[in-house]
Amino acid sequence: MAQYLNLIQVISGVLAAVLIPAGIFLTVKKLNPEKYEVIPVKTTVISTLLIILGLLSFAVTKTCTNYTIVTEENYELWALYFASIEEVVKLFGFLVFVPVLFRLFKPKSRKDKQAEEEIVEEEQES
After folding, report:
1. According to the model, what pLDDT value does residue 64 have?
2. In whole angstroms, how far apart are CA 67 and each of 51, 70, 85?
């Protein structure tokens, strides 16, 4: 298994580098202030899952790195993986909440903006 660690590390690192930005960009793509629409729940869930999968893939990369360092300690591979997950969550766990935050920021509706413009015009005419 030791000969495949570099290959596993590179593959999981590339996968993490693709999944995390894909999850964020999927949410950002649906965020359009000109349409005054809220991001759909389905898009938020898919984006969050992509980010979670990217973080788990990054944890595999960290596990491969830690495995080469602690080979003399005779740790189980699962123990190293869970320690790596904990480290990744501490450092990058906030990324999971990015799609949820974009969904919570609801754009103002057109009706509110038009109503404000009409009120201002009526006050100016008076």
Report:
1. 86
2. 24, 5, 14
